[in-house]
Amino acid sequence: MEKPDAPSTGKNRDPILAVLREAFADRRRVLEIGSGTGQHAIYFAERLPHLVWQTSDRPDFLPGIRAWLDDAALTNVLPPFVFDVLGAWPSGRYDAVYSANTLHIMPWDAVAALFAGLPGILEPGGLLLIYGPFNVDGQFTSASNAAFDQALREKAPHKGIRDVGAVDALARQAGLALIENRAMPSNNRCLLWRRLGVG
Questions:
Q1: Domains (ranges, CATH) in the chain?
Q2: Among 8, 157, 180, 182, fewest CB within 10 Å belongs to which?
Q3: Computed over its alpha carbons, how large is the radius of gyration of the chain?
Q4: What is the pLDDT of residues 108-162, one digit of tens each?
Q5: How many CB atoms lie within 10 A of CB 127?
């Protein structure tokens, strides 16, 4: 099949990679929630060979992910499995979870379900890294983000840029502590949480 292409990955992959090199330096098993086309997975896994990268997404995305993975033929990227945060969760355990450009396209109940489900798969001390546009203290951080939010909501009312504080409240309920909030190019952010507790 013809491989799907997400042009934004070419623009954001190197800034995200720089964060991953630091944050996931001592990680081993990463679950990517919402792998999309699979382009991030192969780009990061090729450059971070110490990671075993597990791709996942809803069923309609899996053929495209497989096409990219088949061409790349990387031994440290695992074939995607079907994963909808509102459905059944995987049984595996991971010391890192990564998701990019997903929270603003999920309905809010799915965002809540994502955080609520994390303790079941994320090891104590495990890291969660989420990349995308976020509001801060209820305010847009740029005119372009405000326009993007309006366009999202016009297409589907359940979509929209999420607020850092509201998302962090969900994370804290799940036993995660925000340890970094890094500004990224194009008015995006990387939010990094660590799961507290033992066992």
A1: 7-195 (3.40.50.150)
A2: 157
A3: 16
A4: 999 999 999 999 999 999 999 999 999 999 999 999 999 999 999 999 999 999 9
A5: 23
